[in-house]
């Protein structure tokens, strides 16, 4: 019988099925970690390495090739949408703890701060949150809208070649429905058709575009393309995904698709050559708190390109936000009118 990792998986009621390392009864995922200090990889903080192996690791990290390729792109500018460093401590509670790397307040720090409150202090905090929520969200109402075009798609009357998950599709359809109700799609003239094959590069820049931030697999754009007809698509996402909508989108002969694998924090939208000067609609689904702030700054700020101050010709913006526990004062945009 083939040797297997000896790590017991209680939820699956069996041992791990991976092969063990040569010098260990466990596989690479379950080998006990060394007591030596582990630190986040400077190239990709989603994984960590032994501090003593850091020099060796950064030369061989799988993320290195992608990072080098990204740094050569004209639209890459490290931290361009991150906010000003002087705003780090601009919040009422500050934004950092002494000695913490990059002066960033982590989710763990926030949890510890809440856990350290006394019962009266915690109750007072809850009352403040409820009071602020009531004052700010008094005029906000639930708005679930599904247009006729999306309803046809959902009912299967449009050929779908993507995994169908009803919960997400209904959310996407409602986003588009609210955009139509507020005149965003009509103002953007989504129904305008163009034959992109017959356009030169300069003329293509005059065709309206859609930029989806935090696109993931791109299903929101897929629904927009199927139901309303779009000609140019830019998908902004820092991670790599399987089962993307790209394959289905590229089968549309009249549609131009470009995927930008980059963090929104580092994206200079003005420097995307194929988008420069084009009117565009910015959309996003499930953008976390800081990603929403980064997107607003990316779309609405003026940039200096080759000595000329340029402002993106944005025609509309629709973002469905997500969790806010990652928010930092550095990224927060409190007053767009004064900032832009």
Q: Which key terms come to mind for this protein?
A:
Rossmann fold; 340 residues; two-stranded antiparallel sheet
Task: Describe the protein.
The chain has 340 residues and is an alpha/beta fold. It folds into two domains: 8-71, no CATH class; 148-339, Rossmann fold (3-Layer(aba) Sandwich). The protein contains twelve helices and eleven strands. It has helices at 54-58, 63-71, 107-115, 119-136, 148-154, 166-181, 184-188, 201-204, 219-228, 246-250, 289-300, 336-339, and strands at 8-9, 14-15, 38-40, 48-50, 209-213, 232-236, 256-260, 280-287, 302-305, 308-311, 314-321. The strands form four sheets. Strands 7-6-5-8-11 form a five-stranded parallel β-sheet, sandwiched between helices. Strands 1-2 form a two-stranded antiparallel sheet. The protein has a two-stranded antiparallel ribbon with strand order 3-4. Helix 10 (246-250) links the parallel strand 6 (232-236) and strand 7. Helix 5 (148-154) packs across helix 9 (219-228) and helix 6 (166-181) packs across helix 9. It is globular. The model is unreliable at 87-101 and 335-340 (pLDDT under 50).
Reconstruct the topology from this structure.
Blueprint: E1 8-9, E2 14-15, E3 38-40, E4 48-50, H1 54-58, H2 63-71, H3 107-115, H4 119-136, H5 148-154, H6 166-181, H7 184-188, H8 201-204, E5 209-213, H9 219-228, E6 232-236, H10 246-250, E7 256-260, E8 280-287, H11 289-300, E9 302-305, E10 308-311, E11 314-321, H12 336-339
Parallel strand pairs: 5-6, 5-8, 6-7, 8-11
Antiparallel strand pairs: 1-2, 3-4, 9-10
């Amino acid at each position: 019988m083939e040797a297997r990792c000896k790590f017991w998986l209680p939820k699956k009621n069996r041992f791990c099925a991976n092969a063990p390392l040569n010098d260990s009864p466990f596989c690479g995922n379950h080998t006990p970690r060394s007591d030596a200090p582990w630190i986040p990889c400077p190239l990709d903080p989603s994984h960590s390495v032994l501090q003593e192996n850091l020099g060796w690791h950064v030369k061989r990290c799988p993320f290195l090739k992608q990072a080098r390729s990204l740094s050569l792109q004209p639209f890459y500018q490290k931290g361009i949408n991150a906010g000003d460093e002087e705003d780090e401590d601009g919040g009422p509670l500050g934004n950092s703890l002494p000695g913490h790397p990059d002066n960033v307040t982590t989710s763990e720090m926030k949890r510890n701060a809440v856990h350290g409150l006394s019962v009266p202090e915690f109750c007072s905090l809850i009352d403040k949150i409820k009071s602020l929520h009531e004052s700010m969200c008094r005029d906000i109402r639930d708005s679930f809208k599904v247009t006729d075009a999306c309803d046809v798609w959902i009912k299967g009357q449009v050929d779908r070649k993507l995994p169908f998950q009803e919960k997400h599709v209904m959310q996407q359809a409602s986003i588009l429905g609210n955009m139509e109700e507020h005149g965003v799609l009509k103002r953007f003239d989504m129904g305008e058709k163009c034959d992109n094959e017959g356009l030169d590069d300069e003329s293509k820049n005059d065709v309206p575009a859609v930029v989806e931030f935090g696109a993931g697999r791109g299903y929101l754009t897929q629904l927009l393309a199927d139901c309303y007809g779009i000609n140019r698509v830019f998908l902004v996402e820092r991670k790599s995904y399987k089962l993307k909508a790209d394959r289905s989108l590229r089968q549309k002969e009249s549609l131009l698709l470009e995927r930008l694998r980059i963090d929104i924090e580092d994206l200079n939208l003005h420097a995307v050559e194929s988008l420069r000067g084009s009117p565009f609609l910015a959309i996003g689904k499930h953008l976390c708190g800081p990603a929403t702030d980064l997107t607003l700054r990316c779309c609405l700020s003026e940039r200096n390109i080759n000595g000329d101050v340029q402002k993106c010709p944005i025609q509309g913006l629709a973002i469905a936000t997500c969790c806010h526990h990652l928010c930092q004062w550095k990224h927060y945009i409190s007053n767009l009118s004064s900032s832009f």
